[in-house]
Structure formats: C-alpha cells, structure tokens
Request: fold
Amino acid sequence: MDNQNFSLSHEEKLVNILKSKGWKISFAESCTGGLVAGTLVGVADASNVFSESVVTYSNESKIARLGVKKELIDLMGVVCEDVAGAMASGICNLTGAEVCVGITGYAGPTGGTLEKPVGTVCFGFFVNGKLVTKTVNFEDIGRNNIRQSATTYVFRTLLYLLENEN
Reply:
C-alpha cells in the first residue's frame, strides 16, 4: 500500500474499490436521513459508482418503496436486523447495484425501548449477492452524533467486507 492511500478517507477508499470492480452502490436510509449518501457524494468520482439512495423514514415508505413486509415490522419492530436486511435487499432490487446498505435505528432523543435503547442502529449490507446484518449500540450520545457514528460505521464495514470478500 502506498503512503498516499493512508491519507484517503474511508469513503474515498470505498469509491476507489468500487471503481476498480466496476460496481455500483445504493443506500436505503432511515435514521441517518441521507447522511451516508451525502457523505459519499462528497467524494470526487462518486458519480462513477453511486447508483441511488432513498430515505425511507416512515414504515409506510419502507413497505411501499423497498418491499419490506408490514408483517415483519409488526412482528419484529422497525429497528431490527431483519428489517435492515430487507431494506438492503429492497434497494438492490430497485437499482441492481452490487453493493447496497439498509440502515434503521433509534437516533433519539425518543423512540428507544428497554431492549433497543436510543443509539441502537441495525444495518444490512448486501455485497455481491451476500447479505450480512449487524446491530450496534452507539449509546445515547446525541441524535446527530449517533447519525454520524452510524455513517462512519457503514463506510468502515463496507471496506472490511469488500477487502475480505469471498
């Protein structure tokens, strides 16, 4: 790895990897409200890899736009790995991108539960046909800090998944 690569941000590294593979990326965001997509488009050449992003903030939007099953949300709650995975799969179905991410969580200050407190964010990462889901509790560090932490987590995790693909 050359020294210049050390100075690249996670999102710049991601764009470079996706460009080298000829892959596209799409996002389905809820609690991050478009912050992930906005961060990616801050990178030069993002237009070569970025397909589409949707902010599906309401349950109705997740159901209508992404095909998340209402029964799943009713059974599991909207903040769970199954819904995040369904969001990632749904945006992949819409865009045909090789890399898709679904994000749902409680950024606060309200909305959390005892089992899933404010700061709980669930992620679905769909990479070249393989779905990986994760849940992270960023703690109640404030709404925008949770959103920023979740965004950083997306880019770090995507780099890990793409660098360790197979």
Summary: The mean pLDDT is 95.
